[in-house]
Amino acid sequence: MEFTTLIVKSVILVNFLSSQGSSRYHVNVAVMETHPMGNEIAAWDLELQEPMKERNVRDHEHSKPTDEMIIDAGYPSETHTVVTDDGYILTLHRIPHDVGGTYNRTRPVVFLQHGLLSSSADWVVTGPGKALAFLLSDQGYDVWMGNYRGNTYSNQHVNKDIDKKTYWAFTWDEMAEHDLPTMLSHMMEVTGQDTFYYIGHSMGTLTYYTACNYHHWIQNATRLMVGYGAHTAVPHITSPVFKLLAYFANNLRWISDNFGVDKFLPSNWLIQWWASEVCTVEMISQGVCGNVLFLVGGYNKNEMNNTMLPYLLGHVPAGTSVRNMLHYGQSVNTGAWAGYDCGSDQLNLRRWNSTRPPTYKYDVITAPVALFWGENDWLVVPEDEAALAGKLPNLVLNQRVDEDAYTHLDFLWGMHNMEKVYGPTME
User: Fold this and answer.
1) What is the pLDDT of residue 42?
2) For the residues of 115-132, what is the DSSP string, one character each?
3) In angstroms, rounded to a whole number, what is the distance separating the alpha carbons of residues 400 and 378?
4) Contact 45, 17 (CB under 8 A)
5) What is residue 390's DSSP assignment?
6) What span, in angstroms and rounded, lies between the C-alpha atoms of 212 and 200?
7) For position 63, what pLDDT does the model report?
8) Residue 391: partners with Cβ closer than 8 Å, 6 or more residues away
């Protein structure tokens, strides 16, 4: 039975690889018999001297919650809970002032929003003097960090009897329409501020731009929107995770069998195959090949502090829905910035009151926008970033990070971010 399953998976992947027409995806069948990983899918194209190693870092020391990391760093910490209009319970983390500072309502407010498969921990995990949340606090900002539905900190609903299928039936559409305005409104109410700065990474930029289509007050209240790895449509994405998702986007049975039914939980064999496509010896030696976020966003040894890796791996991936991942796959296939296509006229009518999902607009994004982008970004390639930059009506900066190998996750944890990204951001 296992051998038959292996053959079926092999045929599926061969068909997928053949359809891509790219030299990046190829199969060396001979490896199947001689590779140290044995005769399995993960051995395809992974001609390396040692098997993949995945570190077990989900212990408390390496996965402390955001508020605890803030307190350990000596900063004041607050945890806020809000409820969206569709019943999702979200958690926000706040650093109200710097070490030794005091509460006041004159500090400028900045909101940090994480990206795909991430959480508020992204902004503090590298510690004082390095993590963006602490740097902003030191500069006098009142720092707020959001958490979208379905991640580690925002995984509850007011309806305790809600079934899993209903709970996980969301994408970044709902995050933009419900989550972001709820969190921003709460921040403004607590601080008494009527304007704010916004910094988003990855999906945190996509949801901001989408939210501007639903809630015009958001762009009116934004003093500056800063986007790291910013995107809307991603038709030229190079991440193998989304290439595969796009290929099977219309085969929901295959998706549910291998990615999870509701929550995104990719099968081990898929993780191993993705790793075989992109992992270098360096990535394997650092134990990141078993982590789907690194397979989505890439790895850059020039920016990665290896002593921090156990702590990073202790916080990612932080969770999302299968539907959210499929939404990205739809963007790859259509090249459009649009709502989630539910798959039939009837389902789309129920969700959108139309047989087709909405196409979102750029002209409503009137807030000033500053973009930072990486040449080696697997999720947001330069071509897609340039397309976004050309459509924003109030773009004030479009800066390439000065490093050829800079990739998607480096915006969060890069060792030279103060020089390359965070310093210019705060200027």
Assistant:
1) 37
2) -TT--GGGGTTT-TTTSH
3) 15
4) no
5) H
6) 14
7) 83
8) 362
Asked if 323 and 171 count as a contact pair (C-beta separation under 8 A), the reply is: yes
What type of residue sits at position 318? A
Q: How many CA atoms lie within 13 A of 329 on its CB side?
A: 23
Annotation marks residue 408 as catalytic: yes
Beta strands 369-373; 395-400: pairing state: parallel
Buried b (16+ CB within 10 A) or exposed e, 314-344: bbbbbbbbbbbbbbbbbbbeeeebbbbbbee
Taking CA atoms, 395 is separated from 64, 198, 205, 218, 351, in Å, by 37, 14, 14, 17, 32
Of 45, 173, 341, 377, the catalytic one is 377
Provide the token pair at 287: 């134990």
Count of helices and strands (H, E) across the chain:
21, 9
Query: Per DSSP, which regions of 123-169 are E strands?
Result: 142-146, 156-157
Tens-digit pLDDT profile for residues 360-394: 999 999 999 999 999 999 899 999 999 999 999 99
Give me the residues paired with residue 372 across strands: 228, 399
Catalytic residue of the set 137, 202, 276, 331: 202
Active site residue 377: yes
Cis bond leading into 128, ω under 30°? no
- Catalytic one of 231, 315, 327, 408: 408
Q: Is 236 a catalytic residue?
A: no
Q: What residues of the chain score a pLDDT lower than 50?
A: 1-12, 14, 17-19, 21-57, 285
DSSP-assigned states of every residue in 233-267: --TT---HHHHHHHHTTT-HHHHHHHH-SSB----
